[in-house]
Amino acid sequence: MNLLVTGGCGFIGSHVLEHVIEQPELVRVVNLDCLTYAGRLENAAGVAHNPKYRFERVDLRDKPAVLRVVREHAITHVMHLAAESHVDRSIEGPGDFIQTNIVGTFNLLEACRAAWLQTPDSRSQTRFLHVSTDEVFGSLGPTGHFTETSPYAPNSPYSASKAASDHLVRAYHHTYGLDTVITNCSNNYGPRQYPEKLIPVVIGKVAARQPIPVYGDGLNVRDWLYVTDHAQALWQALTRGRSGETYCIGGHNEWANLRIVELICDLVDELAPQLGGNSRQLITFVKDRPGHDRRYAIDAAKIQRELGWRPAHTFESGIHETVRWYLDQPRS
Fold it and tell me: Which of 43, 114, 177, 297 counts the most CB atoms within 10 A of its CB?
């Protein structure tokens, strides 16, 4: 297997690299990343000196460069994680999300189609895994779960761009015969997440003794998935998933935002008492985000049943590891 991981210098991608590099069937892993604000070379430091590893600084929007990488490294498998992913940024400036998430995915699909579909043999020896989000399904009420058959109803420019890329991948499977698998995951958390998402933002605010902004009433609910659990699930989907199938990946950890903020406050008070304690007093409610989906929840029964994957972390164990990691990082 010559594997291309897009976005390997990002949060999830760097954990994926660390997981796949140990797999015996892997001959080479190529990390394609254009190093945007959320992509950092140091995130991939754990694999950088492995003889299987290669790095290509390439933007997915550069179609000829993407094709060169696929051909030059004789790529046989793709794990496509690279994406603009922050909802707030998509509201402020949707253009980058359209270009990277939709056009970039199109360019990668075209490169794989050109490189892989020349002979019948190549069709059976290649695979394109597209990593997506549960946000494409829109918002749930107080009950129910997203499944692989849930209708698409994206409510933000970010989720709309991911929905469009999902549909492109599905179309390339049915139209051209590309071997594809799509995964839709719940909210990830863990070490190395860029400090714009809820959990690292809250930890950083508490450590700096600054007000912690909480949107609306704080009762929006998300299902949380520890990042190393996600990496393991993606490997299972790549190597064992059925061609043309979609798999939902969730952590079975539904938490309201306010409960998470309170738990982080209490953990920081426990792990870093020198900061002064009583961190819950820093919680500050702010105006809600436009189009803020109320609840997401994943039913991961299919991937558990077909591929034998289950998350190893509860939210309580994962968040403890996560808070400890961020507190151990040097702060300027």
Answer: 43
Q: How many helices (H) and strands (E) are present in the chain, helices listed first?
A: 12, 12
For the chain, how long is the longest CA-to-CA vector? 66
Contact 246, 180 (CB under 8 A): no
Q: Measure Cα distances from 16 to 10, 78, 220, 233, 236 in Å.
A: 10, 12, 28, 10, 12
SS3 170: helix
* In contact, 185 and 250? CB cutoff 8 Å: yes
Taking the chain (332 residues) in runs of 10, the rounded mean pLDDT of each run is: 98 98 96 95 97 98 98 98 93 96 98 88 84 96 94 96 98 97 97 94 96 95 97 98 98 94 97 95 95 93 97 96 94 62
Instruction: Check residue 78 and report its DSSP letter.
Output: E
Apex CA 1: angle with CA 16 and CA 232, to 5°? 25
Model-level pTM?
A: 0.95
Identify the H or E element spanning 255: strand 254-256
Question: What structural domains does the chain harbor?
Answer: 2-190+224-251+294-312 (3.40.50.720)
> Which residues, in sequence order, are CB contacts of 223 under 8 Å at separation 6+?
134, 186, 187, 250, 251, 252, 253, 254, 296, 297, 298
What is the SS3 assignment for 226-254?
A: EHHHHHHHHHHHHHHCCCCCEEEECCCCE
Q: Catalytic positions, please?
A: 134-135, 158
Instruction: With beta carbons less than 8 A apart as the criterion, state whether 238 and 26 touch.
Output: no
CA distance 180 to 172: 8
Q: What are phi and psi of 124, to 5 degrees?
A: -90, 0
What sign for the dihedral angle of Cα 135, 139, 145, 148? negative
